[in-house]
Design goal:
The complex is a heterodimer. Chain A is built from 18 helices and 14 strands. By secondary structure, chain A is an alpha/beta fold. Chain A folds into 3 domains: 1-29 and 312-411, Nitrogenase molybdenum iron protein domain (Rossmann fold); 39-169, Rossmann fold (3-Layer(aba) Sandwich); 186-291, 3-Layer(aba) Sandwich (Rossmann fold), CATH 3.40.50.1980. In chain A, helix 7 (160-172) runs parallel beside helix 10. Chain A is globular and about 75 Å long. Chain B is globular, with a radius of gyration of 24 Å. In chain B, helix 1 (33-42) packs across helix 7, helix 7 (157-172) runs parallel beside helix 10 and helix 12 packs parallel to helix 16. Chain B has 16 helices and 13 strands. In chain B, 44% of the residues lie in helices and 12% in strands. Classes of the chains: A alpha/beta, B alpha/beta. Strand 3 (85-86) of chain A pairs antiparallel with strand 1 (25-26) of chain B.
Chain lengths: 457, 450
């Protein structure tokens, strides 16, 4: 494949065609125009939704400016997370050090906003100029009495995924600071970020089952709940790429078991409920879960069947941040008759990609840490009709006349849970069936013009 | 429960500095310099920008620009690792350049530095020199390299933009004796503004080079294929031949000079000033032509350099604008506008506001939260600026008329016109209608006529 750089050949695979495991978990290649961001980004997006914490970014202005209100993570209470704070380092700070500025900036902000904790993010140059952020955090903690956590996230110290790990470590520094008795059958929800209020849908399901949700990490997250997270009986982990590490830390330290789930699509959503009931070995809970699933599915099946009838035969390309989400998407698309012909992610593990390979039809292209050149080739090659990705993938799809579904941070419609599945089908349908695609053919043939037939589909 | 103490109670720490307020930036108005550089590089034909730093810089800037332009924005990164940060980024630089050439076959690579590469002292001109030396022997045709120094701890995206225009002109423009063209440097304007300027200069039958021209690269038609490098942009050849201009027209007043790292601001140069001092090309420097007075000034220069009168079509546009001013003057008179954005853009907008009887309010070099606090004092009737001020407008329940960059919550930002009689007409209609709509929506009875 000529459009793939030599160093990246092993990061692309085809389902069914070869047994080779995809090469992943590595730094992006210089000059490849990766769709990934950096360590800072990884830590920032994970911690971002903790809405009663102060998030202060220590560095020059860019990192804070580009992450201001970046994620549609909703909060049922405080909205401090939606503000963007920066020490805005200047040249003189770079020369003489920015520690004093950091300390005073943080102090001033803590005084003004009275957060329950503060996260201080170190960006690229902070380590290089030798600021002792840990020391400043210790002093701030001493002074203000709230937890002040140094998030060591210089962009160059790995990839976005390493940033997830940094975020997990930072969250873990809060865990165990409070001991508050909670219900026995309680879980923490890890890895849902409450985009478009998705977490609230899940809370409703678990409530119906009689499961107590302790901490939500980090969607609609609160410092106090996180501090008490070690008292839950189980960690239910979605977006495993970002949160597995926290689950592991909590298992090692507090012996809390965890399970991997996904809330996208009917199958995975239902499993997420059943698995929790199974964990608590509670027949009553299981009955309630079954009842809930039965109700929801019987309510939505006619609508899904309607979409499936119309969408069958369409082909989709998936390129998203986490591979676990990609897996759910393949299954969810199958429910509405759409075949996945390209499946890729920024941060998948070998296990994720093996799973994808098994799940997908023969010939599906599987790719790790792709770029616009590759993606645009792949969708042409596989004649995809729809692209599912994030903000940076949208113009790739649109410029070549493909429908697009945003499955990333900016979305305003919930796509998780049962009602999310309907929203998802609706959105796929809306993009696939829009009449505008008939204009995307450079020169429609006379016959097409005559019959008004859709040129692309 | 959490340990709670009276906040800020114990003895002062050795890091404490008394008496200083707002050492933090809260909801920044400015963006970082490499963004401005990337925008300029997108305005050069066949160019792929490379940001020499961590992967995130390129990705964040791409995302930010994509959300505004709704177009592909491919920006490469040299993807610094820990090793590169300690031992230097030359290997990443070489790999990056090689891979850009392999994937994109560019005719130009525009390289912007970052806070990281500047802090560790990367010698980018040295890297370029070494790369060329190592690869020219092979006989391969190498792209043109342009380098702009854009550490994000100096100035903002506006300064990054101006520095990159200057760096490009300095590195490419050659001295010539024949002078028959006009160079126009419009600054950070919209694709629609660039298209308008080109149309106006064409109508004046002026032979010109406009730089940077991202009117097509960042606002392209539907292409059916993914153009690795979108068509359009100022050609390297035209930039090289800027030396054959008899005059430069450069929009801007401050060029963010006050944010420059040089203490002596008089020694900070713009591209137009550099062409004047080095190649003796007359520089007509003027505010962005927003409003009748500012556009008249611009048109006067066009008349002078072309020896022609304002073409009839444009004269009528001016006439219709005057007519519209008269018809709607009462709806805007005495209203207060809160402005924000790039300094040159804001001062031009402020002049226009005064021209139509609107009182402009703005504060230099502040963040959005300061502006939000100031709004209590100013009591503006509407906001005039990019989409990031929306939350202030929402809180105050007043209209926001979206102009400039970025506009992330609406469509059509690249088609938004601000310049000339035509752009002023659009702005005027939008401001008038925003105020009328506001009044109508808040009226207890509602009405069908003005």
């Amino acid at each position: 494949m000529a459009h793939i750089l030599d160093e990246r050949q092993l990061q692309v695979s085809v389902a069914g065609a070869n047994e080779r495991t995809i090469d992943c978990n590595k730094a992006s290649l210089a000059g490849s125009v990766s769709q990934r961001a950096c360590v800072f980004c990884g830590s920032r997006v994970v911690l971002y939704p903790i809405s009663d914490a102060l998030h202060l970014i220590h560095g020059p202005i860019g990192c804070a400016a580009y992450t201001w209100d970046i994620r549609g993570s909703l909060s049922s209470g405080p909205e401090l997370h939606r503000l963007s704070f920066s020490t805005d380092l200047q040249e003189r700070d770079v020369i003489f050090g920015g520690e004093t500025k950091l300390y005073n900036a943080a102090l001033e902000l803590i005084e003004a906003h009275k957060p329950k904790a503060a996260f201080i993010y170190s960006t690229c140059i902070v380590g290089v100029i030798g600021d002792d952020v840990e020391r400043a955090c210790r002093m701030l903690e001493e002074k203000t009495g709230i937890p002040v956590i140094a998030v060591q996230a210089p962009g160059f110290q790995g990839s976005k995924k390493d940033g997830y790990k940094v975020a997990c470590e930072s969250i873990f520094k809060l865990v165990g600071r409070i001991n508050k008795p909670i219900a026995a059958k309680s879980i923490n929800i890890l890895g849902d970020f409450n985009l478009a209020g998705e977490l609230w849908i899940l809370l409703e399901y678990y409530k119906k089952m009689g499961v107590h949700v302790n901490a939500t990490i980090t969607g609609d997250g609160r410092v106090e709940d996180i501090c008490n997270a070690h008292n839950a009986a189980l960690n239910v982990v979605q977006c495993s790429g970002s949160m597995n590490y926290l689950a592991k830390l909590m298992k090692d330290e507090y012996n809390i078991p965890s399970m991997r789930v996904s809330y996208f699509g009917i199958e995975d959503m239902s499993d997420a409920l059943y698995d929790v009931a199974r964990f608590f070995k509670d027949d009553n809970m299981m009955d309630k879960a079954r009842e809930l699933v039965r109700d929801e599915i019987s309510r939505m099946m006619p609508a899904l069947a309607w979409y499936k009838e119309r969408l069958t035969g369409k082909k989709a390309a998936i390129y998203v941040g986490g591979a676990f989400k990609a897996i759910s998407l393949v299954k969810a698309l199958r429910l509405i008759g759409v075949q996945s012909v390209i499946v890729g992610s920024q941060t998948g593990t070998p296990e994720d990609y093996e799973l994808i390979k098994k799940l997908c039809d023969e010939g599906t292209i599987i790719v790790d840490d792709s770029n616009p050149v590759e993606l645009s080739h792949f969708v042409k090659e596989k004649q995809a009709d729809i692209f599912i990705g994030g903000v940076k993938e949208r113009p790739i799809a649109h410029k070549i006349g493909l429908g697009f579904c945003d499955h990333n941070h900016e979305r305003k419609e919930p796509l998780a849970g049962y009602e999310g599945m309907i929203n998802f089908a609706k959105e796929i349908y809306a993009t696939a069936m829009s009449p505008v695609w008939r204009f995307t053919s450079p020169q429609p043939s006379p016959k097409e013009r005559e019959t008004g037939e859709n040129v692309i589909f | 429960m959490l340990r709670t103490k009276n906040i800020i109670s114990s003895a002062p720490s050795p890091l404490e500095r008394a008496g200083e307020r707002y050492v933090s930036t809260r909801n920044s108005c400015k963006l970082c310099a490499p963004l401005g550089a990337s925008l300029v590089f997108k305005g050069i034909e066949g160019c792929v920008p490379l940001i020499h730093g961590s992967q995130g810089c390129a990705t964040y800037i791409r995302r930010y620009m994509i959300s505004h332009y709704k177009e592909p924005v491919d920006i490469a990164s040299s993807n610094f690792s820990e090793e590169a940060t300690i031992y230097g980024g030359s290997r990443n630089f070489i790999t990056g350049i090689n891979n850009i050439i392999k994937q994109y076959k560019p005719s130009v690579i525009g390289i912007a530095s970052t806070c990281l590469s500047e802090t560790i002292g990367e010698d980018i001109p040295g890297h370029i020199f070494n790369y060329k030396e190592a690869n020219e022997k092979t006989g391969a045709k190498l792209p043109t390299f342009i380098h702009a120094s854009t550490p994000s701890y100096c100035g903002s995206h506006a300064e990054g933009f101006h520095n990159t225009v200057l760096a490009t002109v300095k590195s490419l423009a050659e001295f010539e004796n024949v002078r028959n063209k006009i160079t126009i440097l419009p600054g950070m304007v919209s694709p629609a503004d660039i298209r308008y300027l080109k149309e106006l200069l064409d109508d004046f039958e002026i032979n010109f080079t406009l730089f940077p021209d991202y009117s097509e690269t960042l606002d392209n038609e539907y292409t059916a294929e993914y153009q690795l490098i979108p068509t359009g942009g100022t050609t390297v050849h035209d930039i090289q031949r800027m030396g054959n201009s008899k005059a430069t027209i450069e929009f801007g007043a401050s060029f963010n000079k006050s944010f420059s790292r040089l203490k002596d601001k008089s020694s900070v140069q713009t591209a137009g000033e550099w062409l004047e001092s080095s190649y003796y090309i007359k520089n007509y420097q003027m505010p962005l032509p927003i409003g009748i007075e500012a556009t008249d000034k611009f048109v006067d220069v066009l008349k002078t350099v072309s020896g022609k009168e304002l073409p009839e079509y444009h004269r009528k546009e001016r006439g219709r604008l005057v007519d519209a001013y008269i018809d709607a003057h009462k709806y805007v008179f005495g209203k207060k506008a809160l402005l924000y954005g790039e300094e040159d853009f804001v001062t031009a907008m402020a002049d226009w506001c005064r021209e139509i009887g609107v009182e402009p309010y703005f504060v230099k070099g502040v963040d959005f939260e300061t502006l939000r606090e100031k709004a209590d004092e100013f009591q503006p009737d509407f906001l005039l600026g990019n989409s990031k001020g929306y939350y202030i407008a929402r809180e105050r329940k007043i209209p926001l008329v979206r102009v400039g960059f970025p506009i992330h919550d609406r469509f059509g930002a690249n088609r938004m016109l601000h310049l000339g009689y035509r752009g002023t007409q659009e702005l005027f209609d939008r401001v008038v209608n925003a105020l009328i709509e506001y009044k109508q929506e808040n009226s207890p009875i509602g009405y069908k006529y003005l």
